Amino acid sequence: MTALPLHLRPIQFVDTPIGLPEGSVARLAGGMQWFAAYEVIEGRARRIVPVADFDTALGGNESAAKLHAAITAPRPALTLGNRVLRFDQPSIAGILNVTPDSFSDGRAYGDDPAAAATAGFDMTVAGATLIDIGGESTRPGAPLVWEGDEIKRIVPVIERLASGGALISIDTRKGAVMEAALAAGAQIVNDVAALLWDDRALGIVARAGCPVILMHSPDPAKGPHGDGHYRNVLTDVFDWLEARVAAAVAGGIARERIIVDPGIGFGKSLADNLALLNGLALFHGLGCPIMLGASRKRMIGALSNEAPADRRLGGSLALALKGVEAGVQILRVHDVAETAQAVRVWRGLKDQALVGG
Length: 357
Known about the structure:
Blueprint: E1 6-14, E2 26-27, E3 34-42, E4 45-50, H1 54-58, H2 62-72, E5 78-80, E6 83-85, E7 91-97, H3 113-126, E8 130-134, H4 147-163, E9 168-171, H5 175-184, E10 188-191, H6 201-208, E11 212-215, H7 233-250, E12 258-261, H8 270-278, E13 291-292, H9 298-302, H10 313-325, E14 330-333, H11 336-354
Parallel strand pairs: 7-8, 7-14, 8-9, 9-10, 10-11, 11-12, 13-14
Antiparallel strand pairs: 1-3, 2-3, 3-4, 5-6
């Protein structure tokens, strides 16, 4: 009989390892969270294994040992020019859409790259480590943008931000846009299609040697909002991302330069999104930093009397804090100042707890 695939989700988080028996807790991805047990998922079967009992219960299982090593290994920082992106604490990526039709902040800057760049600099002052620039809306039903128009939108903004020292990611699925953005000063590619929409994309990223963010969607070759049919959305998305990471590595991208994103809202129902958010810690088993993009998403409206996109701050902050509690390293958000404040307060509480206060 073929063994069922095994997955491990860190659970039973503790405030501090101080005073606990040695080996009873493990540090999550070299970050600020410690956990005391795993939920072991094998098909539909689930059981709890304390960290202290890992060797006895799972030590002989090669898959479990590999996952445990990935979950507990520190994520190396990325040195990008004169900037360093660290993963031992949560950081914020500010969303800067230079599009006429984004679901939340489209039309904000019109055709004024200077105004868009100023907004980007304001985000860095407010607490963003990274500015994520997009020139094509990925909202449901959005029309495909010709790559020439997309380049025209993003390059002048990237040039201004790069000249001012900002760390920039380009949110695109098109190879030509990736090339233009990297040439203009972007340092990271953020692809909602996980390098599957454009046949040239993987090679472009590999040759550039830049970090890449691989996001899950059900059928990225057709578009980011295909119908998802999941047996178990949490493990299905994990397995899909695991395969995309392996393909990226095989294509010449260094594993330590890969970031993963479970794709909240992309081809997922409300129930799917809630399951992913509740199970976020599972994705540390990929051995890569995690980006969470849940800001102002439709699911917040669905849970709060259909609140429109510009009235979803409270829900966005709730999901951001859910992410940092699960050890997510990057929060991709619209409301940078408010999220940064929430994370600073969380960090203060965590720092106090870690020293045993």
